[in-house]
Amino acid sequence: MSQLVKNIFRFACFIMLQVFVLNQVPPLHQFITPYLYFLFLLWLPFSTSRIALLFISFAFGFTLDYFMGTPGLHAAPCVLIGYLRPFLINLLISQEGAELNYAEPSIKSLGLAPYSIYALILTFIHHFYLVLLEWLQFGNIVYFIGKVFTTSLVSLLLIFITEMLFFRKQKFRTNTA
Amino acid sequence: MKNIFLFIRRYFTLLLFFILQIVSLVFLVNYNLTQQAAYANIANEVIGRINIQYNNIQSYFYLRETNRQLAEENARLKNLLPSNFETADTARVVRVDSLVKDTLGPQRKFVWLPAKVVNNTVTSQTNYLTLYRGSKQGIAKDMAVIGPNGVVGIVIDVNDNFSRVMSLLHRNSKVSAMLAKNNVTGSVGWDGKDPLYLTLQNIPRSIKVAKGDTVLTSNYSANFPSHIIIGMVDVIAADPSSNSYTIKVKAATNFYSIQYVNVVKNSLWAEQKQLEAKPPKNQ
Question: Which of A50, B106, B157, B166 has a Cα at 20 to 30 A from B192?
Answer without folding.
Answer: B157
